[in-house]
């Protein structure tokens, strides 16, 4: 066992019944699944669009998935890429990789071939389990990677039998649904479901240990350079246990809604590890759609939903419009972006439950702070450090110097959920992880008298839109190659519950080559290299870009110009 640190005085706002420190078991993450399979074998583990899978059945599928990966040559320490939306197969593959002591590498299945090629090559993944629609993009990238095997996942194969049969009907609705779930797969690419169905179960004789790497999760960190955060089994075990301690949920009693993408750190921990730790039934949806969530709610009412604010707002609005009953949801945790007070009030009015804001980073597995899951929560506050988590507020220029109480400074975090470093990037790791294991967050905060942490500003330039991080330099680098564009600066502008919208401020060539450039053309150019959420939502043409004396673009001034131009045009 990892011993907790010495006891300290509890902050005034500390939730009743939650210990300040906890012991983290010295065990791999797979031990969590083993316990739940033993103690709750007949409880429904996963409900994917009506197809129920018990923990006993899930364990059997994981054992067969483990055999499939072993037969493909996967061994301890090897990286296995998962490129698919939320589905039962995603969950099975995740646990099967960990059973072998191998390393899960999560990827956004909507990424372009170039984006996937970069991440796959960087991780050195040798096997990729891929949604059919993403298979062509992964195969296009394969010669730039170390991939030896690509295995296709048919999303519709996880559906109930009647739903699979309905997809074959010669009607428009069936064709539309089938097209959204499936995709063309070249001959010779094996299918995950067929391999698993034919495999003999395998339970490796040697389990991974707590210090082994479990997950590579790609993030821009605080610099905008895509890199993989290395998370150990201990990191993931700790954060799931911290979450259970904070929520005080009893095992075998909760129905968690998996509307967050599993390839995102927030969704992975809350839906794949925390949900299993509390033996919850996880209602899985391949993508967020309010109508589909309400349909699932009628079938299997939820009790707990982790989400980003726009999801909560859209779901509450849909319930108000249709008269749907969301009162079974007692709790919600909101993260990835600031929770607007109006959204919190609307959600609590519709559900009668509590929504609490949390804070974290991929580098903290990801949750580090949270509001109490009670009426004591404070909308607009990041909350309190999780159990066994310590924070410091330091001078922004000198992270070795703590600022006086109540003053603002950069937030540092220490705890068992703090990552091991960046994959094959020792210099960036050394910059981010200070002596004593303190993680620099790049966020400026203050701590109020009751211990609540409040976000003041962001040191980083990233844009948060709909819960996703967009790094301006990546968008700018691509737009600079567009014919007719002389220079560009990308900034975020307030967008209500979406957080921010991406705005491209461009300077056009004086030779007139950029005369035909408009927002549609910019978005079309960007679609070849960037994720959809990173595409500019507005285009502003400037005569030049404001720069510092050393030539650095002053994004703060650009943002002011963009805002001013918008107000005048509006």
TrEMBL record:
Residues 475-552 form the AMP-binding enzyme C-terminal domain. Pfam families: AMP-binding, AMP-binding_C. This is AMP-binding protein. Residues 34-423 form the AMP-dependent synthetase/ligase domain. It comes from the Bacteria. It comes from Cellulomonas wangleii. Transmembrane segments: none annotated.
């Amino acid at each position: 066992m990892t011993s907790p640190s010495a006891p300290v005085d509890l902050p005034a706002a500390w939730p009743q019944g939650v210990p300040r420190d906890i012991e983290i078991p010295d065990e791999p993450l797979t031990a969590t699944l083993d316990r739940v399979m033993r103690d709750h074998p007949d409880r429904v583990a996963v409900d994917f669009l009506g197809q129920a899978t018990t923990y006993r059945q899930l364990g059997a599928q994981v054992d067969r998935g483990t055999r499939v990966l072993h037969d493909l040559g996967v061994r301890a320490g090897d990286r296995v890429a998962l490129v698919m939306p939320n589905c039962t197969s995603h969950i099975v593959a995740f646990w099967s990789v960990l059973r072998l002591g191998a390393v899960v590498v999560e990827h956004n299945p909507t990424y372009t071939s170039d984006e996937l090629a970069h991440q796959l090559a960087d991780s050195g993944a040798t096997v990729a389990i891929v949604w059919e629609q993403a298979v062509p993009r992964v195969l296009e990238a394969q010669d730039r990677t170390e991939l030896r095997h690509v295995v296709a996942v048919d999303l519709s194969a996880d559906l109930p039998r009647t739903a699979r049969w309905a997809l074959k009907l010669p009607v428009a609705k069936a064709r539309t649904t089938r097209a959204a779930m499936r995709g063309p797969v070249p001959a010779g690419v094996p299918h995950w479901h067929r391999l698993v169905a034919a495999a003999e179960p395998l339970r490796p004789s040697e389990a991974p240990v707590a210090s082994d790497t479990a997950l590579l999760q790609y993030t821009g960190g605080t610099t905008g350079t895509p890199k993989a955060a290395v998370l150990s089994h201990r990191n993931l075990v700790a954060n799931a246990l911290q979450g259970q301690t904070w929520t005080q949920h009893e095992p075998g009693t909760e129905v968690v809604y998996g509307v967050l993408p599993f390839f995102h750190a927030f969704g992975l921990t809350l839906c794949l590890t925390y949900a299993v730790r509390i033996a919850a039934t996880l209602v899985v949806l391949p993508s967020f759609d309010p109508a589909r969530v309400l349909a699932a709610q009628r079938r299997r009412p939820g009790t707990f939903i982790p989400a980003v604010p726009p999801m909560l707002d859209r779901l509450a609005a849909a319930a108000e419009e249709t008269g749907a009953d969301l009162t079974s949801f007692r709790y919600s945790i909101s993260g990835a972006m600031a929770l607007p007070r109006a959204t919190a009030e609307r959600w609590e009015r519709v559900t009668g439950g509590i929504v609490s804001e949390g804070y974290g980073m991929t580098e903290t597995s990801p949750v580090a702070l949270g509001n109490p899951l009670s009426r004591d929560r404070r909308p607009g506050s990041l909350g309190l450090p999780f159990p066994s988590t310590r924070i410091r507020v330091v001078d922004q220029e000198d992270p070795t110097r703590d600022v006086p109480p109540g003053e603002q400074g950069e937030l540092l975090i220490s705890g068992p959920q703090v990552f091991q470093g960046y994959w094959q990037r020792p210099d960036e790791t050394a910059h981010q992880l200070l002596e004593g294991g303190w993680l620099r967050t790049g966020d400026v905060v203050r701590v109020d008298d009751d211990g609540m942490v409040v976000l003041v500003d962001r040191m980083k330039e990233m844009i948060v839109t709909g819960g996703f991080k967009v790094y301006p330099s990546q968008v700018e680098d691509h737009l600079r190659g567009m014919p007719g564009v002389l220079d560009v600066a990308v900034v975020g502008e307030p967008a209500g519950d979406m957080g921010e919208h991406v705005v491209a401020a461009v300077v056009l060539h004086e030779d007139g080559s950029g005369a035909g450039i408009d927002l549609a053309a910019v978005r079309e150019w960007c679609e070849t290299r960037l994720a959809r959420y990173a595409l500019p939502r507005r285009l502003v043409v400037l005569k030049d870009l404001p720069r510092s004396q050393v030539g650095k673009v002053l994004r703060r001034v650009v943002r002011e110009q963009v805002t001013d131009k918008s107000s005048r045009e509006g």
